[in-house]
Amino acid sequence: MDWLKSTTKLDNVLGRPDNRVAQALRRAQSEGESLKSFVLAVNLQVPGKDQHSAVFYFASPDPLPTGSLLHRFVNGDDEYRNQRFKIVNRIVKGPWLVRKTVGNYSACLLGKALTCNYHRGANYLEIDVDIGSSAIATAILHLALGCVTSVTIDMGFLVEAQEEEELPERLIGAVRVCQMEMSSAAVVEAAAATTAVVGRGIGLAKVNHHEEED
């Protein structure tokens, strides 16, 4: 997981030249390793005075099975993806108000509830989930962020099965976020206007990791 902060919304994080996961994959492939690996990233974009992104990475060392539900999702169009991309979550620990508002267990088709932007690379798919696109989601998020250091949440991401032959549903991946500190985010600074544009139209950037003082 990457927990990032910037003055602007971070889109297509895996397409950035400074992304640590993309760098590691390129380095491995230059050495003849991980040539068939595929990465799916979910970038939860958190609105606010500073823009935050919680980016979760799920990798497969092998190509996606042709014809599988995940293969169709990755290679489908955005309309198909929006109808299928689902999150399931569970509040493991947290104040009563958060558990009551969010619900201890819930499932949601993110592509229908929020604006999702999909970025397809040669060996990855990134899903940017704009939480700020929904006033209700933003209000719930700000409530949770007010006591985020006391909240533990499990989240799973999957492609929803809508036909009998697509069952059983299988998780793409799952994460547990425990009592996160907002101040622990790595700061991603936007490039200067004179910086050359590289790759997929993403300017060069520098990532500064906070270090604890002695």
UniProtKB/TrEMBL annotation:
<protein>
    <recommendedName>
        <fullName>Protein ENHANCED DISEASE RESISTANCE 2 C-terminal domain-containing protein</fullName>
    </recommendedName>
</protein>
<dbReference type="InterPro" id="IPR045096">
    <property type="entry name" value="EDR2-like"/>
</dbReference>
<dbReference type="InterPro" id="IPR009769">
    <property type="entry name" value="EDR2_C"/>
</dbReference>
<dbReference type="Pfam" id="PF07059">
    <property type="entry name" value="EDR2_C"/>
</dbReference>
<feature type="domain" description="Protein ENHANCED DISEASE RESISTANCE 2 C-terminal">
    <location>
        <begin position="1"/>
        <end position="181"/>
    </location>
</feature>
